[in-house]
Request: fold
Amino acid sequence: MSATVDAGLFANYFRQGLGYSPPVMTIPGFTFPVRELYLEDALELTGYKVGRNSRYASRKKATPTEDVSQSAGLVSRGISSLMGERDDWESGFDDHDDSATAANDLYSKATQQSLSVVDESIINFELIETLICSILQLELEPSAKYGFLTASDGDAERREGKALVSSSGQTQKAGAILVFLPGMMEIRRLQSRLQSSSQIAACGLGGLWVLALHGSLSGEEQKRVFLKPPSGVRKIVLATNIAETSITIDDVV
Reply:
């Protein structure tokens, strides 16, 4: 069931009203560990840069007055949320400044510069393609900073004996990659890009099986996302939020 019920409440109802003590069976569930990475991590991981003249850069150029005003507003909101009371504004400002400095130390100057100009309302298909390629590569050789992205030690044991072999003779952990997109047009665009990607082909990691998943597909077409890919091929599912609330694809890592 999707809902959570109080089993004890129902058991007491029958026990007190009918004198019958019903058995209560409990089936424990389990969750997979989830690691949250953000846009800045994707930029840092891939080395992808967004310049001021990029199609993915914001076209609005703030005036110096607006920059000062926006910065003052951010600082003011940070102080208000941290200090709780007006009398403690100095300590709140210090905390806000320290956390911002610590965050900046985590990322390279190139990543910070890209973040300062990027337009987050635009879907960056180039970055998605590069990120998928990086994910596949990092499964063979982990990043010094991020390690393995798609498998913890427990996951590696669970998938023992279920490795894919790349065209270079190396092995990579099995599992599909799920990409959420807002609509059918975006899915088609990224599907076409990935299927013809010279960047991913150059990685030497075998072929890709890129599948779409949205409400306009027939039932038979939607069922394809549950199939296991051919040997040496990686499955990538491009989906709307239908895969977020309605179905579960078992082999997504």
